[in-house]
TrEMBL record:
Pfam family, any one: FAA_hydrolase
GO molecular function term, any single one: 2-oxopent-4-enoate hydratase activity
The organism of origin for this protein: Aerococcus agrisoli
GO cellular component: cytoplasm
Top-level taxon of origin: Bacteria
This protein's UniProt keywords: Lyase
Entry protein name: 4-oxalocrotonate decarboxylase
Fumarylacetoacetase-like C-terminal domain location: 98-261
Length: 262
């Protein structure tokens, strides 16, 4: 695909996000078939546009790492995207719907490294050795696509539905918590609607970081220390609306409680 066409698609996705407009898949709108690599090229251009006007990149998110999400969205391999600083809020703060189209929430484990990773064929053990700390989080996903229906290439180009995250301010050393067996329950208006475990995320959340490090290396990029990495939903993504009271109960990591407002 020519660079001009990639830029045109990126500009369109950037604008639809700002306009809060749900759209058909861009591969259909532009009648273009593109590869996964080209989709990440488009994502890079979307991120560059956002850096000009919206703020700065603040975290990585990895998606489609659990059976629940694979079944929900029918895409069977992990993807990654970039969260920006304006997308981040913290536990107990109200979540405003003002910049979302059709948001959904999912509990996640975030990992922060103490050393950069930039090497070929990173292993699980190497990632575990480089983890500084972990904490609980909630991702607020919001695809621009109607009904969250998309192909792998379409969702990658769309910055993997990145739109929000809620963080805990309490951090844990990796040796002090068992993130493999960490359990999360999702309550909306005091009704339990979902649950999952750390092991549901790529069989271990650190495996999601392995994927990200190797994927970035192939594109000539390092995975930097000190940057939060959201490892993927422990459950499927559950829709929210104004007035909802959301609670995410974690076994050992920090639990969440927040209200959804207009």
């Amino acid at each position: 695909m020519e660079e001009a066409k990639k830029q045109e698609i990126a500009q369109f996705l950037y604008q639809t996000e700002h306009d809060r407009t749900a759209i058909d898949n861009v591969s259909e709108i532009f009648n273009e078939k593109f590869t996964e690599s080209e989709a990440y090229d488009i994502q890079d251009k979307v991120v560059a546009l956002k850096k000009e006007t919206d703020g700065q990149p603040a975290a990585y998110k990895i998606g489609l790492t659990s059976p629940a999400k694979i079944k929900q969205l029918n895409v069977d391999q992990p993807v990654y995207g970039i969260l920006f600083d304006y997308m981040i809020s913290y536990n107990h703060e109200p979540l405003s719907l003002s910049r979302f189209i059709h948001p959904r929430v999912e509990p996640e484990i975030a990992i922060v490294l103490k050393e950069d990773i930039y090497q070929e064929d990173v292993t699980f053990d190497e990632v575990m050795e480089k983890i500084d700390y972990v904490y609980s989080s909630v991702e607020v996903v919001d695809s621009r696509y109607h009904g969250f229906r998309f192909s792998l290439e379409d969702v990658v180009a769309d910055n993997t539905s990145c739109q929000g995250a809620i963080y805990s301010k309490e951090h844990f050393k990796i040796e002090d918590v068992d993130i493999l067996n960490e359990h999360a329950e999702v309550y909306i208006n005091d009704e339990k609607i979902d649950e999952g475990y750390g092991k549901d995320v790529a069989h271990h959340p650190a495996n999601a970081v392995v994927f990200l490090a190797n994927a970035l290396y192939k594109r000539g990029e390092k995975l930097p220390a000190g940057v939060p990495i959201m490892t993927g939903g422990m459950t499927k993504a559950n829709p929210i609306k104004a007035g909802d009271k959301v609670r995410m109960e974690f076994t050992n990591l920090t639990s969440f409680e927040f209200e959804v407002v207009e």
